């Protein structure tokens, strides 16, 4: 089983992904960490030195490699991974996609002090809110292609969403 958690930065993909993987007794994969391992530098540095397009191509390549592997895992994708280079198509062909959906005010509280997200670096909270709203609006159609959508997700809701329907 391959489970791909998708959603905005701050939606809990990594935190919930680790919990879900432990519960299911499968590997946890953080796509951003895999990118950093491959490039031997931080995502911020990749953006600074190579630009977003280089990052997106690398992200798409690693996503396809993991999706095509025989391993079972829970993956925390980067927030943009499903939305570029047919990422959502890859995800839905190879596994179960779950959109972790939180409203912008919750996302804002979760990311406002994180300086490691290159697309969210801002001068103030008003600008951050505008960026998050714009990004969410741009990505929402892509995210809604997920096989499962969970609003205000928790581990319990994730586990419940994976139960067979009777």
How does this model look, in words?
The chain is an alpha/beta fold. The chain has a single domain, classed as Rossmann fold (3-Layer(aba) Sandwich), CATH 3.40.50. 52% of the residues lie in helices and 14% in strands. It has eight helices and five strands. It has a five-stranded parallel beta sheet with strand order 2-3-1-4-5. The longest helix is centred in the C-terminal third of the chain and has 19 residues, at 125-143. The radius of gyration is 15 Å and the shape is globular. The two termini are 20 Å apart.
What's the SSE pattern? Answer: EHEHHHEHEHHEH
Outline: globular
Annotated CATH topology:
Rossmann fold
Please outline the major beta sheet: 5 strands, parallel
What percent strand?
5-15%
The spatial strand order of the largest sheet comes to 2-3-1-4-5
List the uncertain runs. none
Number of domains: 1
Please report the distance between the alpha carbons of the first and last residues.
Answer: 20 Å
Number of H- or I-type helical stretches: 8
Q: Total number of β-strand segments? A: 5
By secondary-structure content and strand pairing, the structural class works out as alpha/beta
Helix content: 40-55%
CATH level 1 class label: Alpha Beta
The CATH H-level homologous superfamily: P-loop containing nucleotide triphosphate hydrolases
Mean pLDDT: 91
CATH architecture annotation name: 3-Layer(aba) Sandwich
- Gyration radius (Cα, Å) is 15 Å
């Amino acid at each position: 089983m391959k489970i791909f958690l998708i959603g905005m930065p701050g939606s809990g993909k990594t935190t919930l992904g680790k919990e879900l993987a432990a519960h299911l007794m499968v590997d946890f994969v953080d796509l951003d960490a895999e990118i950093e391992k491959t490039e031997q530098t931080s995502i911020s540095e990749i953006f600074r030195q190579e630009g977003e397009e280089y990052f997106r191509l690398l992200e798409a390549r690693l996503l396809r490699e993991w999706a095509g592997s025989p391993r079972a895992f829970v993956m925390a994708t980067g927030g943009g991974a499903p939305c570029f280079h047919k990422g959502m198509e890859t995800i839905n062909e190879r596994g179960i996609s779950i959109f972790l959906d939180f409203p912008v005010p919750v996302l804002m509280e979760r990311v406002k002090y994180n300086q490691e997200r290159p697309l969210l670096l801002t001068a103030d909270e008003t600008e951050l809110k505008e960026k998050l709203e714009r990004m969410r609006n741009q990505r929402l159609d892509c995210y809604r292609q997920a096989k499962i959508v969970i609003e205000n997700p928790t581990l319990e809701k994730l586990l419940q969403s994976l139960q067979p329907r009777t």
